Amino acid sequence: MLRHIIASATVSRQQIASDTGLSLATVSNLVGELLELGLLVEVGYQDSGGGRPRGLVAINPNGGVLVGIDVAETYVHVELFDPALTVLASVEEELHPEENRPDQVVAHVVSSVESALATAGVGHDRVLGAGISVPGQVDREGGVSVFAPNWDWHDVPLRSLLARSLDMPLYLDNPLRACVVAELWFGAGRGRDDVVVVNLGTGVGAGLAFGGALYRGATNSAGEWGHTTLVVDGRLCHCGSRGCVETYVGAPGIMQNLRDLAPNSPFLHTDDQTATIEALARGVADGDPVAAKVVTETARYLGVAVADLINLVNPEVVVLSSWVAGLLGDALLAEVRAVVGRHALRRPLAATEITLCRIAGNPVSLGAATFALERFLSAIGTNAGGLVRQT
Amino acid sequence: MLRHIIASATVSRQQIASDTGLSLATVSNLVGELLELGLLVEVGYQDSGGGRPRGLVAINPNGGVLVGIDVAETYVHVELFDPALTVLASVEEELHPEENRPDQVVAHVVSSVESALATAGVGHDRVLGAGISVPGQVDREGGVSVFAPNWDWHDVPLRSLLARSLDMPLYLDNPLRACVVAELWFGAGRGRDDVVVVNLGTGVGAGLAFGGALYRGATNSAGEWGHTTLVVDGRLCHCGSRGCVETYVGAPGIMQNLRDLAPNSPFLHTDDQTATIEALARGVADGDPVAAKVVTETARYLGVAVADLINLVNPEVVVLSSWVAGLLGDALLAEVRAVVGRHALRRPLAATEITLCRIAGNPVSLGAATFALERFLSAIGTNAGGLVRQT
Q1: How many domains does chain A fold into?
Q2: ipTM greater than 0.85, yes or no?
């Protein structure tokens, strides 16, 4: 219902009931609770054509704020949102390769959050909750980063470490799940049942939604598509296996594709994947043949791996997301579609749209803040908890 | 509820209500309808310790029959079931390689069904429905085999062809989905949410269940794991792609593994995959080193491909099923587990059991008959339709 109100801007209880299929009594109760919580406000009346005028409600832009934190291998990105998940402030700090110890990452998160709050002029007391996405496998109940392969983190109690400085409810999850939730609420997944979000960053993975809801698997680690095998006995992966998808299409994998084609390329910034991918994107724009070849080679692997997802999952949409897709997605998309066309089965292929993420801003921060909103609603222990499908 | 009654043999309405969480009124209504339909019978009373004795009900063994038809590339297997899905009769006819035209396959199906009905002394009028599983992609609403890659069938209207001879409701689906339903109702999937059934036959695929229910994908073609890529630019697959899982672990793929290791092996029966796999199974039992090597080589590919499923789907259980698993499963299992251990991520691996199908009889026929039971209940248009989760 909240998703619906966010999408509608202002809406009457009667309209919500008719659009969601809930009874008017249920809608009225839920709206009443959300008004009390300050998440909604009354914003006037609508003529109902003869009957009593209908009260209109909208998300309360002053109803507290949500924090969405995207911790990636190369940066920390924090966004502040109102309850309609409109961005109020945005801060990004770079993470240098030598800054991957938990205390260093925690320090960057804390300073980014403080600086976002200061920018928006909002105190800790107005924060309803903060969602934090960290790469790798997480124990969200315990607030622990179980395994972050690119940093070799094992069982880092991230929530406890952050709680020393951040006085707000903290919810931990990973970018695969944050991106899917963002697409389901605000992106290409809206109104769709079976959705795959392919995250292309330093690590890669596939966020999954089935029947319109986030799919977590038995232990919240579903979607590790980056560690499915594309080439038996292929490139060594830091996970210990060989030939993983990630070693060909993650940012370091793309650097390797470049190195294989042109070991002395000026695009290559050793130890700086961001600079390398940015240089490649500029090269493609400038019509450089080596950059174009790297894209083709990367698309050859990515297309096969996306075709695997289409054959196995039979989704309605595959969204290419995260920062590598942001930089190289336009160049990759047509070639990926062509490779998928040669490798996917006809029937599931015909049912699938392959698209770039079109969410403005950072979808991981947005998804993380959405988790915080969902958890806030369920944590207050009222009927409002039933408003959102728990993901 | 029906699943519960089947599992309990005889049970009171009160016990059903307490075990399923349904209200006694709801259970009494549903039981009443099933008694009227003849699917259940009253079988006596249970002392309730002072109160009124409680009526006991059970599945009616004379309440009509269900037909489960497993059409595979090399055989047609038909089983007849009572409504508790106990086998009443079983018939198998071989399909020779040159018998893969639709009219030939249809003739084998019809004669197998007739012969099963004759064996059990049951007329067409007592058949509640027949479930038919055919390999490849199916349009179950239209009753059409959309694409059967091993036979190169395209858009074969199988239900119409069968309806000319078989006067009973016919439901079409494929072995991936039949096997999952069989495991959910009667096998390793009972009481579990996230289940993968790896089907190893001529073709291979993965039946998927999420949240305790069969997952079909957007167009009922989810689970085409056999056509995910294990080796980019690897063996040519009849689907048009290269390096598909199926080309390494399907029966013809295993024959190729054998041919690569020992081109003149006496185990090799050209053009007879069944005889070859049977010979290999005997070879393993006899301690033959070539047979053992073929198992190791096959397990090397199968283990990697199962690890892919574990990393992507994070299931509670992976079941190895179908006829190749029936013949070689015991030999493969330990080696597959070892390979999976080297390729799967620690966290999802720890949550997954890898096991052989333990369903007595043919799980595809059982699952197909279960589809027919589900469709019968929903087709009669009463509350009883709500008894089973529609899959």
Answers
A1: 3
A2: yes
